[in-house]
Write a structure and sequence with these properties.
0% strand, mainly alpha
Length: 56
């Protein structure tokens, strides 16, 4: 009976660690995605405005 209890605690602990890891990973991925999209947008705006500057 004690072994079942210990295995259950171990399983719940692993599940909690996995959940925390996925939360941390998703935060890192969302920050990376925001960084990449902002970099792409700034490059596109720079490209666009440089072409406007060339045309005018």
């Amino acid at each position: 009976m004690i072994w079942i209890f210990l295995v259950l605690i171990f399983f719940l602990f692993n599940l909690l660690l996995l959940l925390l890891f996925w939360m941390h990973a998703s935060i890192i991925l969302s920050q990376l995605l925001i960084h990449c999209t902002s970099w792409l947008l700034s490059n596109l705006f720079f490209f666009f405005f440089s072409h406007i500057h060339i045309y005018y």
